TrEMBL record:
It is an enzyme of class 6 (ligase). Its EC number is 6.2.1.12. Residues 282-301 have a biased composition (Pro residues). Residues 268-281 have a biased composition (Low complexity). The lineage of its organism: Eukaryota, Viridiplantae, Streptophyta, Embryophyta, Tracheophyta. Residues 708-745 form the AMP-binding enzyme C-terminal domain. It comes from the Eukaryota. The keyword Transmembrane does not apply. Keywords: ATP-binding, Ligase, Nucleotide-binding, Signal. This is 4-coumarate--CoA ligase. It holds the Pfam family AMP-binding_C. Residues 238-301 are annotated as: Disordered. PROSITE patterns: AMP_BINDING (PS00455).
Amino acid sequence: MLLTVPLFHAYGFAFCLKAAAVGETAVIQTERFDAKRTLKAVARFRLTHLALAPPAVLALVKFREAGCAGAASVGDVSSLAVVTCSGAPIGTDLIRRFLASFPNARLTQGYGLTETTTGVFRFHGEEANQRIGSVGRLVWGCEAKIVNSDTGIALPPGARGELWIRGPLIMQGYIGDERSTSEILNSEGWFKTGDLCYIDDDGFLFILDRSPLQNSSTYFRLTQKSLRLQLFPQLHQWPPKHHHHHHHHSLHRTSTLAAASARRRRPSTVSAPPSPSLHLPSPSPSPPSPSPSSLLPPPLPPALIDAANGDAISYPELLSQIRSLAAALRSTVAVSKGDVAFILSPPRLDVPVLYLALLSLGVAVSPANPVSTSPEISRLVGLSRPSVAFATSSTAHKLPSNLPTILLDSPRFRSFLQISESDPTVEDVEIRQSDSAAILYSSGTTGRVKGVLLTHGNLISVTALLIGPPLSPPPPPATSAGATTTTLLTVPLFHVYGFMCCLKSVAAGETAAIQTERFDAKRTLAIVERFRITHLALAPPAVLALVRIREAEDAAEDVSSLQAAFCGGTPIGTDLIRRFSSVFPNVRLIPGYGLTESSGSAFNSYDPGSSKYMRSVGRLVWSFEAKIVDPVTGLALPPGVQGELWIRSPTVMQGYIGDEESTSAILNSEGWLRTGDLCYINDEGFLFIIDRLKELIKYKGYQVPPAELEQLLQTHPDIIDAAVIPYPDEEAGQVPVAFVVRKPHSVLGRGRSCNS
């Protein structure tokens, strides 16, 4: 990147830090700006990015438009991909002239102030072509609202007013000037920009007029936390790095997850609330969009697909059903913010709709395994204390008789999804990020099942990192015009894996295909072919089943659309990874590591470089810290040394609901989550899982990891799955005992094992 902007300005200052932090090259323009000299530098150093102020953009355009000999003599500038412009608004006429002069470069604007550390609105990817005249959308980590400057009341999308911003990027104040600080920063942390703006239905900001210039002698105090947020290439992908105890300060771009996808995909129908409330507002009239009609988005893909029968819900239908269901639940069932809803259902197309409707009302979602027994369900209900339950005809009998229950397969529930003129309007529900969003169930690091309490801040954090590079799936190949990311969810929707995949798919405007029938490898491959699935969400046993069916049969199904398969839940052996790569040579298998307590993935093998370490589950994802600790002394260990893995992130749970003792045992006072897993991290940051600390088999003084034995057993052609446990032995202390699931019609029996 060539920095033509002053290094003393927040614009140049932030870009300097960012380039150094991510290992990029920053070319400093040490001479006075000159258009010809700048373009020569682009050609000489093969520059890909320029950081400019509007006058510099105008100078470059005029130089190119002049068509003189000088314009031709600067050299080849084809390397130039992106020009970032900030500091002042840039006119639509100049934007068009720039695009005509530099047809292969993208011009992106942003909006920020010195008081916000850097840009807080910006364009992501190709969005700049959709909203000429806008300065982009809110970055992750911030909240924004348009306010009536006289009354201080938040205004709806499209209404003009003063822009207020809140988030960890905001300065601490004007040094030595408390009066000015109190005038611009209110007691709730909102920064009053003084700029007249509006935000359209899709969340794009338009600046109408600038505030008076600030006194140039004012100094600002920025914290290390603010600066740390500048050290990442795409600020919108990285939630602030806070301890779990301080999530109420970790203020992210707030929006109802159900509406997030619509802001990306449905610019004409869904409003993006500029206020910090998490709600589904009705569309409000807004000024005509400056986007040319030729730049309208393509037809929308389905939001959800039932992989068994092909039933689908479009994004317009999804938003309609969420609003209708929310209104019905509030008016007829009387659920309200702070309640808990227990969900006991097999995978269904309406389960994600139910999740999102409940979240929009501030009701905590608590899904459970539908195959659990009645006593198990009673314990879970006792933990979460729900006010209402949602079940099906096949599962409702397991619920306590005194718990009000709504059947998802009943006409009553189906009527809740249909909007009628008599339906009441859902009032806006203001939801703080510290409010409870979900109670998922986990055995913790050991022992009985516990209720993992996740907040809206947790969900926003994990969704932000999932839909931003480097964790979001790559775009489909250019040859598949109009294609979208379509993920087949073979994992349970009540599990953190499936739960987060659902939210991520909707927030990113992708398509989620729900496998509503029992997993079958042959059927899964047929689904991939039928719906042109691009990504699979799998557990290791499903990976093994797919590999075996491809090894045993001729490949009849067309799986050429498939790009990647995510695998989590338990470790996956290197032998299985090799076999998968052999039968699916064009599909990347991406193992990961996470817990319910961390809201999902903490390490991920999305980085292509992960392939050189097949036993690893990848590197740490954005927003996480990790260390390997001696389980006895609690001291951090160096790379390559085995110990207990500790992690910290804004995605980490608040604790186990109603169980302070277990919470304090797994979360320390500094916010570190003790995973209970024996691991090591190598010099390059790749994590290797050895086993559970408390599951190691103590055999004659040796510590034997059951996972290694299980992976070995699974290589046997007649064994579908295996579990190894310790068994007391007088001489050895403990010996490993294996339980195996045999392949149908297998003759494998006692005394025959992997030696056969």
